[in-house]
Amino acid sequence: MSAGGSSHELVQPKERFREVARGKLGDSGIQGAVDLSTARLRGHRLEAWSELGDVQELRERANQIRMKAVRDIDLYLGQFTESLEARGGHVKVCATAEEACAYVVDVCRRRNAKLVAKSKSMASEEIRLNDALTAAGVRPVETDLGEYILQLAGEHPVHIVAPAIEKTKEDVARLFSAVEGQDVPAELEELTQSARRQLRQVFLEADVGITGANFVVAETGSIVTVTNEGNGRLVASLPKVHIAITGIERLVPTLAELAPLLQLLGRSGTGQRLTSYTHVVSGPRREGEEDGPEELHVVFLENGRRNLMGTKYEEMLACIRCGACLNVCPVYRKTAGEAYGPVYSGPMGAVLVPLLVGLPNAASLPHASSLCGACTEACPVKIPLHELLLELRRDLVEDHVASWRERTAMSLWSFAWSSVLGYRSSTFMARLGQRFGAKLGPGKAWASGRELPRLARRRFRDWK
Amino acid sequence: MSAQGVQLFATCLGDLVFPEAVADADVLLRQAGFEVEVPRRQVCCGQPAFNSGHRKAARRIARGFVKAFSRSLPIVVPSGSCATMVAHYLPELVGEEPYDVWELSAFLDRHGVEIPRRNEGRVVAYHDSCHMLRELKISAEPRRLLERSGAEVVMLPRPDLCCGFGGTFSVRQPEVSVAMADDKMFAAGAVGAEALVTADPGCLMHLSGRSRRVGELQVVHLATALARGIPAAEAAA
Description:
The complex is a heterodimer of chains A (464) and B (237). Chain A has helices at 6-10, 16-25, 28-50, 55-71, 73-86, 97-110, 122-126, 129-135, 145-153, 169-180, 188-205, 231-237, 255-269, 324-328, 330-335, 346-357, 374-378, 385-398, 404-416, 420-433, 441-447, 460-463; strands at 90-94, 115-118, 139-142, 208-211, 215-217, 222-227, 241-247, 251-252, 277-281, 295-301. With 464 residues, chain A is of the alpha/beta class. Chain A folds into two domains: 6-306, NagB/RpiA/CoA transferase-like (Rossmann fold), CATH 3.40.50; 404-463, no CATH class. In chain A, strands 1-10-7-4-2-3 form a six-stranded parallel sheet, sandwiched between helices. A four-stranded mixed sheet of chain A has the order 8-5-6-9. In chain A, a hairpin with a 4-residue loop joins strand 5 and strand 6 (222-227). Chain A is globular, with a radius of gyration of 24 Å. Chain A starts with 5 loop residues before the first helix and ends with a helix. Chain B is of the alpha/beta class. In chain B, the strands form two sheets. Chain B has a four-stranded parallel sheet with strand order 2-1-3-4, sandwiched between helices. Chain B is globular and about 45 Å long. The interface between A and B is large, with 63 and 65 residues.
């Protein structure tokens, strides 16, 4: 993957999904870890949803709130900006990943920053911010435990909520031991203590703190982060500068409308009624206040999102990044996240990535699904994920991204089967040729792991 | 039920690969007193093209369906996914009114059809096909029918998981597809099922294709399980 631009980062070569997936299938450790974790998260969500009374009504309400914001994004962006700027915050809307990275690097340079403490942010992954910072001589350190583990391993998140879902405690112990130069036992308590030792100094010494935002509230100009480890709160309050990076679509009109979304986010992501910390920041430190950053910047990232507005794919912008669709996806379960690319994975990734980078640059993703519909059923904001995948497949064909061979084969087949005579003769021929079926194309792919279906000597219609 | 008429939609996979299963569906309906018509001009619902994004091709085939079936009698389909296609997508695709279409087990269950007790003492697992489960919301009916046939129906640990067929997914991502089938069959074996029963020829083709390759569990269409009973283990595969 080339460094720099997001469009490069998210681009997915055609055969990549299948190749990476194949590797994951052969790794029983990963299979076990992903199966266990996704099943547990799914179970927790279902339990948490069952306590909600009418969860369907809440989902519907959440969808309406999200779509209200998405359909009128500039209005709410304006409200937010006005509100935050009135309290001394800075707002920057960036059309591209490059622009967003440049802005953040610029702030760091101006403040002479050497060390940046980061809490979890998928938007920063999307723009490959760490690479940009490193190139500018600034050292970014991830402080979310999962992200920190991945940073040490030199890997990318494979799950948007549980980024290191496929890592075992033994893997983590090895990485931590190397940092500390001494053996760290593979026990949860010991590993947590080790992470604390390693990260504490980072919180204290960082010049700039960078966070994501789960939501931003237009009415009050607030950034809302939802975390469990407490690192987000440290990152947003100890360093002198706080930069929050988020997609423009994460706006919510009012604080009152934030409530139902918070009700659903924790429950859908991890099964928690409330995460350990819900942090609402509405400006930098004010006079007379003892802590908080001197400078606060909110970077809104477009990076292709505007392309979706007003289209049949608009609802994808309602996504609140809870990960529920990943946890129920049978394809994610077998392939883990890496196959989908380095940032967004599972059904939400399979829909979002082609929309951000263009279908020709991620043509295999709409087909990285069996269209079972489990994602749509699990989505707390009712995004019809599998229907959107189907729409993307349609665009693949209609925009001629799908191969000429595939399109011709489908056309010929449909012409043949548009009459009974054509059906009879084509299936008669197919039966004659079926012993060659395993030799080429789809038949070969099928026969690699399964026996080909035997076309019956007499079709049902011949019996009657 | 006095000689209510139904139209049987064999589906392309039923017609070409599993004619016995369609014949079993035919028998079940007749034994229940229905007059079964098999429209001669039927071919396919267009689902293979539709689900891979080829709308034009799908429409061409779907028009054939419209010509083949009459509006005066309900359509019964021994396939969850084809029933979904006809119920949820085909009318809009070709600009037609909705059809009175039934998945076989839902139809039999709805009409309280008597099921011969051919599966006394047999232990089976039922595999929910995704479209049938999530779009048609049919999951209790096939299990109820199997129980009425005398079988003990054991629950799979994760009945929500797809078996990995997914139409063209099965050949675009064959490794993942096959791994999903293996998980499904392993799960069925682990809960002590002698056979895995499904009401969808797509899942059946995929699961039985895998089973024939690795010689594991027998996979049986619901219509066959009900009309003739689960075959003895030896006879299968």
